[in-house]
Amino acid sequence: MPYRVIGDWGTSRLRLFRVEYDCIVARRVGPGIGTVGSEAEAAFAQTIAPWVADGPPQDIALCGMVGARDGWVEAPYATCPADRDIWRSAAVRFDWNGAPLAIMAGLACIGDDDIPDVMRGEEAQIFGAIALDPALGRGRHLIILPGTHSKWALVDDGRIVNFRTVPTGELFALLRDRSTLGPKDATGDAGQESAGFDEGLARAGDGRPLTSLFAARSMRLRAGRSADWALGYLSGLLIGGEIVETRALLSGGDGVTLVGDAGLADRYARALDAQGVAARRLDGDACALAGLGFTGEIAA
Amino acid sequence: MPYRVIGDWGTSRLRLFRVEYDCIVARRVGPGIGTVGSEAEAAFAQTIAPWVADGPPQDIALCGMVGARDGWVEAPYATCPADRDIWRSAAVRFDWNGAPLAIMAGLACIGDDDIPDVMRGEEAQIFGAIALDPALGRGRHLIILPGTHSKWALVDDGRIVNFRTVPTGELFALLRDRSTLGPKDATGDAGQESAGFDEGLARAGDGRPLTSLFAARSMRLRAGRSADWALGYLSGLLIGGEIVETRALLSGGDGVTLVGDAGLADRYARALDAQGVAARRLDGDACALAGLGFTGEIAA
Questions:
Q1: What strand order describes the sheet that includes A256-260?
Q2: What is the pLDDT of residues A131-177, one digit of tens each?
Q3: Domain A1-120 = CATH 3.30.420.300
Q4: What is the CATH number of domain A138-283?
Q5: What residues contact B262, with CB distance under 8 A and at least 6 apart?
Q6: Are A221 and B180 an interchain contact pair (Cβ–Cβ within 8 Å)?
Q7: How near does any CA of chain A get to the CA of B218, in Å?
Q8: Would A64 disulfide with which of A121, B47, B82, B238, CB 3.0-4.6 Å?
Q9: What is the CATH code for B138-285?
Q10: ipTM
Q11: What is the pLDDT of residues A82-123, one digit of tens each?
Q12: Residues of A in Cβ contact (< 8 Å) with B222
């Protein structure tokens, strides 16, 4: 049975998908590229081994940090503005045990404020989103990929013209787990957390995220708020602040699309709604696969 | 020889000063109130022991987190607007082994944006600054105490009318030591660090601290900046951002005064200068002692 392999090899996880006749029939998971050091090829060989026992795949395409300087084989950054063809042609290609293997390029840009930026892996999701929703390929759109390092991309007629990274998820985790502001005694009260999130969103509208941080603590000491409230407040303040700042930076167009896992996309949708912006939603996994050329049936 | 004891018992350190005839003749250091748990009195007794061997002091005054809920004895918060007399009269006083002991109050306020705030210990420095520089007791002044949790206080005719905490130092330490943005390979190149600091300050003027953070990494990847530059950039971005936001929040008056240790005050003076604000400087230790009633000679 002829088959192809597509995969996303990020810092913390390798995910491989086996495609037969436009259908994903199997998947395998391996270690992140950030953990394998100089043993990247061995880790890849071990993860894919049960499949190549049937013979080599027709081809292999991998996106993500696998192409970083300290990944497996360094792939360049394609430069914005870039459409999907430009991005695909910038991949590094070589023969791997009889199969043509492509390590996809990253993407680089320089913002209107002269700050350069980079991504590796998210561009596959963005081009995948455009493939899944052809309306995104016409006109001007903001595509948001929330996460540890959120990416905001401005897409114009199918080309990524500019983007910005905001390390909101990383900042939230640091404040929650390692700061004097993150409550250590949260109980998981979703109602309190939600009320705090809304209050953080409202505060974010002031555009003063640094001077609003300490309220996570002072509102507990002086205004009777709970630990769960404080967690929600920090999340709302940071996500709301990310949105306020990024919308000022990237002039959007016909709409905003959220790409990612459901829980986080929910928070962003709520935060965008609080600023009067309705967002479309697309599944992050489906977009990643579509970016690597797969738009068929996901059977496994 | 009759003597008095004044001290600052903060989270991480207890500092005691022995005063004889308006002269500091000795000092002792003990564990922070954050580390002694329920053994606060024993830790205090042990630190002061060599002095009380001569007999009890005439009186003892302690400021700082010693008066927090989980300190030694809880002292209230005096409410802004508060002058020094209001603050002093809010202290908790009791007899300790034959000596009258005062644990000074903290200070609480509610900002114009309805965010409450608190301090414990810094108010002694602020009232001390006013005692050392009588010009600060007339008219309207901003007094800044840079640190892990920076405090900005608006003083009007000697009363603290409002203040705001900004956890800039804590945020910087988290980003430097625990984030993917903090370079792990800085070499201590002061010129590079200084250039990064200035670039961070300039960027802070955009008022978008969250979307400017990732440049600490992307400028290294794409614009040839060094690890030392990145450390300076993060510091300049956060300190500059603190100043931009806080000046928008607290309408200053006749001048800005920096109270604190020389190195950090230098950075803040440079950041204020970049925004066209000249700052006076006062020594943090001298202000703390003056706030506790001591303005004499520091001989030890």
A1: A159-166, A150-156, A140-145, A256-260, A279-283
A2: 999 999 999 999 999 999 999 999 999 999 999 999 999 999 999 99
A3: yes
A4: 3.30.420.310
A5: B283
A6: no
A7: 5
A8: A121
A9: 3.30.420.310
A10: 0.94
A11: 999 999 999 999 999 999 999 999 999 999 899 999 999 999
A12: 108, 110, 116-118
